[in-house]
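Comment thread on ticket #2218

A.B. wrote:
> Attaching the input chain for the structure job we discussed in standup.
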Amino acid sequence: MTHINRLNELLSKAVEKTCDSDIGVVFSGGIDSTIIAMLAAKFSRVTAYSCGIKGSPDLEYVDKCRNLNLEVRIIELDPEKIERSLIKIIQAIDDTNPVKVSVEIPFYFASKKAREDGLGVMLCGQGGDELFGGYYRYVECMARTGYNEVEKMIQRDVENIYAEQLNKDIAVCKTNDIELRAPYMDEEFKNYAMEIPVELKLHEVKNSPGFSCVDTVGDRRFIRKYILRKLGGEIGVPDFILNRKKKAVQYGSGTWKVLDRIARQKGFKGKARKVGRKDYVRMFLEGYKL
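C.D. wrote:
> Ran it. Output below, let me know if you need it in another format.
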């Protein structure tokens, strides 16, 4: 596929531009951040920072990545550590949405450790899902309505990524004096990726899938981020990562589960019920907003 060669060329160029010093990477062991980390290692000394609860899926995958050309630092989180971070995170993002907060917890601790290690810049894999059809809602939309609607969804998500997500990630890392950079959002790379047919991003499997990370809807089968996985294979990403299904950071790191548990332990489920609310985790987090 000529698309793969061009994507490799443009993403390598985008990553190289960010590597003007030793670099940290917010690293989950997923396809997006692994591609960024492996490309960055061609241009700079890279330290990959991975955060999660003990036994979480992300840490299990990251532990297998130690044979890559990366220095991997694992930051094991616990409820007490997470709870202490909430006031800074919520102030930084000005949001008490539990999903948003749980996504930012790994960014906070990864950037904190990177700063302690003397780094000033980190890279992330944000944008890979939006550009290449990584969310399950794209699969659902595809099964219902077809590629045209999926293409519109992707367009909207890419246009809104800074307001919806990246600005929050940047703000949280800034609290630790870390500049966060997102190579997938490089203008030249992003524009080229948006021209690639949706069929190569959300690929419908007819025969042998090539990858084991297949989503089945009715009698149809799809592989999300198909062309990005192909790119990963070209640059040497291990099979166990190429075949890993997308797992949102709040679930892969275990942070969502911890927030839910803390809110329950502090009695917010009952408190919310008394005032006619169901969003007890948000109610708990609202206490940290000044």
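A.B. wrote:
> Thanks. Noting for the ticket: The mean pLDDT is 94.
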